[in-house]
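Because discrete structure vocabularies remain unfamiliar, we first show an illustrative case, written as a sequence plus integers encoding its fold.
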Amino acid sequence: MLILAMGLTLNAESNLGSSPIISIPYTLSFLWPVSFANLTLALYVLFVMLEFILKGKNRRWTDILQIPLSIVFTRFLDLFTAWFDFTDSSFALRLAVLTAAIILTGAGAALTVDMNLIANPGDGFVQAVSMRIGKDLGTAKNLVDISCVIVSTLIGFAAAGRLVGVGLGTLIAMIGVGRVIALFNHLFQEKLKRQAFPG
């Protein structure tokens, strides 16, 4: 959870655009007097509801635990946001921060799903999409990210007449995080599943 929260925060704090899956609350945080963390919490509750619908008969009532997890997770977003600020940093440093963010986000997402832990709602929703469309987790992540960026872009242009919170970093992460998940799963998924389900 900490790895994922750190990755999402660094993505936003690189000042190159937010992580795609939370680009909607990040965009809205510039337009409404509500904190990024609280808007992310609202989105996560929506993700849990959609996950229940998509999973159908495969839903587990333990998935509802994603909501209290979200409360804790979004507080970490607030904490890490207060710690990091790369506003006046060079483009090269911000690009390095973005690269670290993409790796942390992808690895954190893959770890929670592969170890069958209570998923972050964004990752739980991606997993539900993956199951529904019959595609691997990395591909489903790319599809969800693209959808979130499209919605964020529409919100920005509708409310402010321009892109808000979406930038180069968002576009790079939109492809990069899904590919990190795919690579991570290729290298470590079976080992992690054996550890999660010994015997």
User: Anything to note?
Assistant: The chain has eight helices and no strands. The chain has one domain: 2-196.
